[in-house]
UniProtKB/TrEMBL annotation:
<feature type="domain" description="Protein kinase">
    <location>
        <begin position="43"/>
        <end position="330"/>
    </location>
</feature>
<dbReference type="InterPro" id="IPR050823">
    <property type="entry name" value="Plant_Ser_Thr_Prot_Kinase"/>
</dbReference>
<keyword id="KW-0472">Membrane</keyword>
<keyword id="KW-0808">Transferase</keyword>
<dbReference type="GO" id="GO:0004672">
    <property type="term" value="F:protein kinase activity"/>
</dbReference>
<keyword id="KW-1003">Cell membrane</keyword>
<dbReference type="GO" id="GO:0005524">
    <property type="term" value="F:ATP binding"/>
</dbReference>
<dbReference type="InterPro" id="IPR000719">
    <property type="entry name" value="Prot_kinase_dom"/>
</dbReference>
<keyword id="KW-0418">Kinase</keyword>
<dbReference type="InterPro" id="IPR001245">
    <property type="entry name" value="Ser-Thr/Tyr_kinase_cat_dom"/>
</dbReference>
<dbReference type="InterPro" id="IPR011009">
    <property type="entry name" value="Kinase-like_dom_sf"/>
</dbReference>
<dbReference type="Pfam" id="PF07714">
    <property type="entry name" value="PK_Tyr_Ser-Thr"/>
</dbReference>
<protein>
    <submittedName>
        <fullName>Protein kinase-like domain superfamily</fullName>
    </submittedName>
</protein>
<dbReference type="GO" id="GO:0005886">
    <property type="term" value="C:plasma membrane"/>
</dbReference>
């Protein structure tokens, strides 16, 4: 159907970590329709729930196969598909010409970028400008649905919020350590942090193209050619410049939302109170937590958020330093 690439698996790097599976499946549309009951099982974020055989990655029935999430994204053209491959998976792209008009994309995944806290890509399909992404299924949805006190299904305890923060920070610190590959998460939001059945956090790396093939060289060179931030740091608003410090700022906003439970209602004054150290722990922290957290841990969390939200990007901690601080807070 359409011009979807034939089903196959892509080779892994010889020295890939043990956690990495044996390849990424290139599905057909027919496969995905069968696995998802014709895309009828709708979930959060517009994804469809499907089931596949964990060994063969072929369609399977509920109760027999492994649950997967299938996201459908419209792409304007083949160039947008190539841009998506580059910006989302940090891969090498090679064009091979067959005849005079047909081009196909051959991809080689850089497996050393795999991490336990990064959502695993199982496969994909590109068909008639429609991109289907098949990834792990997360029964507890995204962190975004657990933040706002007015709409969340339940309030997460302090320990769970810390665990989620640490898991997400581990992934971001890892991605930043691979900065030569241009692995910035400029579109990081709470909805990009997914939660498994035990509320372990995994950062989703999939979405629409964030940088084009032509712009990749500039992204690797840390220039001002960059995707739009969801939680823009001051320097991006003023000059359009972006780097890893901007990701730290975005992560600080997520921590602030988790701390306060305000979600979309987070006010500028609340951010200013924390940045200026004019905050009262009892008043700032989500009242649903009551007295279930150590007061010193709450104070240190506020201090960490303040550092992440510094106006001067040079004054912000690195993601590794954020992770170290979160681990220290968890020990209190």
């Amino acid at each position: 159907m359409g011009n979807c690439l034939s089903a196959s698996t892509l080779p892994t790097e010889p020295n890939a970590p043990k956690s990495v599976e044996e390849g990424v499946k290139v599905f057909t549309v027919a496969d995905l329709k069968k696995a998802t009951n014709d895309f009828g099982n709708q979930m959060e974020l517009g994804e469809s729930l499907g089931y596949i055989n964990p060994k063969t990655l072929s369609p399977a029935k509920k109760g027999v196969g492994m649950a997967v999430a299938v996201k459908k994204i419209y792409l304007a053209n083949e160039q947008a598909f190539q841009d998506w491959l580059v910006s989302n998976y940090i891969i090498s792209i090679y064009r091979r010409t067959f005849g005079k008009t047909n081009n196909i994309v051959d991809v080689e995944f850089l497996r050393h970028n795999s991490h336990p806290s990064l959502v695993k890509l199982i496969g994909y399909c590109y068909d008639r400008d429609m991109l289907f992404i098949v990834s792990e299924y997360f029964p507890n949805g995204s962190l975004g649905s657990y933040i706002s006190r007015d709409s969340r299904p339940k309030s997460l305890p302090w320990e769970t919020r810390l665990k989620i923060s640490i898991g997400a920070a581990q992934c971001l610190a890892f991605l930043h350590s691979r900065k030569q590959a241009g692995l910035y998460r400029r579109y990081l939001t709470a909805s990009k942090i997914l939660l498994d059945s035990d509320f372990n956090a995994r950062v989703s790396y999939f979405g629409k193209p964030k940088v084009s093939l032509d712009e990749l060289v500039y992204t690797i060179g840390f220039s001002n050619v960059a995707p739009r931030y969801q939680y823009p740091p001051p320097e991006y608003i003023l000059s359009g410049m972006s780097n890893m410090a901007g990701d730290v700022y975005s992560f600080g906003v997520i921590l602030l939302k988790m701390l306060t439970g305000l979600g979309k209602d987070l006010t500028i004054s609340a951010k200013r109170e924390i940045k200026n150290k004019k905050y009262n722990i009892v008043e700032m922290i989500d009242p649903d937590l009551k007295n279930s957290y150590p007061l010193e841990a709450g104070r240190l969390m506020c201090e960490l958020i303040k550092q992440c939200l510094e106006v001067d990007p040079k004054m912000r901690p690195t993601m590794q330093e954020v992770l170290d601080n979160l681990n220290a807070i968890a020990q209190i």
